[in-house]
Predict the structure.
Amino acid sequence: KAGVTQTPRYLIKTRGQQVTLSCSPISGHRSVSWYQQTPGQGLQFLFEYFSETQRNKGNFPGRFSGRQFSNSRSEMNVSTLELGDSALYLCASSLAWGLLSYEQYFGPGTRLTVT
Amino acid sequence: EDQVTQSPEALRLQEGESSSLNCSYTVSGLRGLFWYRQDPGKGPEFLFTLYSAGEEKEKERLKATLTKKESFLHITAPKPEDSATYLCAVQAGAGNNRKLIWGLGTSLAVNP
């Protein structure tokens, strides 16, 4: 079974630009979560989608947005990039939403560098 | 405030030298505690889920235990391939209010 895939793997952008990252979950998984990982803050939850609906959201500004498609694939968008947005962005899929178990399967991440 | 603290930040062991990593937490309404392993340049890899105090899970050289305040990841006779960052996460709340709170991880290096 193929794992979670994320594209692109690396990205360099300039301040003020916007970026779109893509995530394809494991086949059959309907829940997708997005995280930002930085050395000082660790993993910070961005949002979670299930059945094309945002179910949960972390404490990030409105510049960070996402969506999920009917095939469970998800995208996240960051507008008006800031230097502090440089991070590893991780996508994780799980079988369903609302289960007691939060067993998630992560993709390799997209390394975003903002200059 | 909900918080997860992992210690030590970094640990260097000789091959075969057993040790433990700690994950202490203060959350309201614990729903589960998770251990993940992360290799450089990769996303975290799921290891264990623990739900209640007294629970233990084992996988090869790893054993995870849970009390009401903390969890331990015991590594018995580690090998160089066990070198990685080990992350702990705690699930609090349920439904739309559920959240996963992550520790900063313990970076483990096992020397041959």
Remarks:
- Residues 48 and 54 of chain A are 6 Å apart (CA to CA).
- Chain A has a mean pLDDT of 92.
